[in-house]
Amino acid sequence: MQKIAVVGSLNMDCVIETPAMPKAGETIAGRSVAQVPGGKGANQAYAIAKLGGDVQMIGAVGTDSCGIILKKNLECVGVRTEGLAVLEGESTGQAFITVDDQGENSIIIIAGTNGLVSKEMIEENRHLIEESDIVIMQLEIPLEVVEYVKELAIELGKLVIVDPAPAVEGIPDHFWKGIDFIKPNETELAILAGQEKNGLEDLKEGAEQMLNKGVKNVLVSMGGEGCLLVNKKEARFFPAHKVKPVDTTAAGDCFTAGFALALSQGKTCEEAIAFGQKASAIAVTRKGAQTSIPTIEEVESC
Ligand code: RIB
């Protein structure tokens, strides 16, 4: 089995369950509030380890209680944390998440130590990237650090997967060059490609724009519908397993993790997509981020 390095964010999620999302200027009564380990990078690393992969987390937390809990939670499932900096006196990243009765969420993140991940930290952990075969990143750490890791990983001949979330406008074209897979959702792809609509044809066109910027494969996650793989050879739709969503938080992270894990085990791209879809179909039926990640036995019997 190949080794995977996840370079990215860790957040303590503050999750509010609410019957509906509040409108601007509106006050509504929520149902519950809970703290759950999250962060796109940490969710992906956690899921890879829980599903049986060999994974290293590179990122940063603070010495506050959230940082200690997040690090321990990763270690509990076997994530290697040698590359995880614990920064004295700094506050760990946080996410404030509202989940409505349809299982849809909206998220506000406060970067904390995720914003302090630097090129110097990457250099200190260069050996961990060198010994990995697959490198996964998201956009919750500084963009210039993500690009630095991407360049390094490409130079070292690694397979590079980027989950471009949170998506922002104006990312320079050179950022995308040479990435093996990006996995935006429909909203993220529309932002990255500067589109207003996202019907299937718009998604294909948006994905082709990303291919023209130098990405090799675009995997668009389309929520409960499925996902779309677009590369220079084909545009192929993979329907999702039909489930009743309870909370979609980290479903994309679980998909990315399952996809990368399956590739690390020598599966084809199609098989890896199918595995990621099964894992995320289970995750959406459970509450929270890392709390929703299934075991390998659960995915295999799905
Ligand atoms: O993808 C879900 C994650 O996004 C949450 O766990 C939250 O921390 C934010 O990073």
Element-by-element helix/strand order: EEEHEHEEEHHEHEEHHEEEHHH
Helix content: 25-40%
Poorly predicted regions are none
Taking all residues together, what is the mean pLDDT?
96
Cα-based radius of gyration, to the nearest Å = 18 Å
Query: Shape from CA axes?
Result: globular
N- to C-terminal separation? Answer: 23 Å
Main sheet makeup: 9 strands, mixed
Strand content range: 15-25%
Order of strands across the widest beta sheet? 5-4-1-8-9-10-11-12-13
Structural class: alpha/beta
| Secondary structure tally: strands | 13
Number of helices: 10
What does this molecule look like?
By secondary structure, the protein is an alpha/beta fold. The chain has ten helices and 13 strands. The strands form two sheets. It has a nine-stranded mixed β-sheet with strand order 5-4-1-8-9-10-11-12-13, sandwiched between helices. It has a four-stranded mixed β-sheet with strand order 3-2-6-7. The structure holds alpha-D-ribofuranose.
At a glance:
This protein is of the alpha/beta class and 302 residues long. It is 34% helix and 24% strand.
Labels describing this entry:
302 residues, nine-stranded mixed β-sheet, four-stranded mixed β-sheet, binds alpha-D-ribofuranose
Topology, element by element:
Blueprint: E1 3-7, E2 11-17, E3 32-38, H1 40-50, E4 54-62, H2 65-76, E5 84-87, E6 93-99, E7 105-110, H3 119-124, H4 126-130, E8 134-138, H5 143-155, E9 159-163, E10 181-182, H6 186-193, H7 200-212, E11 217-221, E12 226-231, E13 235-239, H8 251-264, H9 269-283, H10 296-300
Parallel strand pairs: 1-4, 1-8, 2-6, 4-5, 8-9, 9-10, 10-11
Antiparallel strand pairs: 2-3, 6-7, 11-12, 12-13
Helix pairs in contact: 1-8, 6-7, 8-9
Bound molecules: alpha-D-ribofuranose.
Alpha-D-ribofuranose binds next to strand 2, helix 1, strand 7 and helix 8.
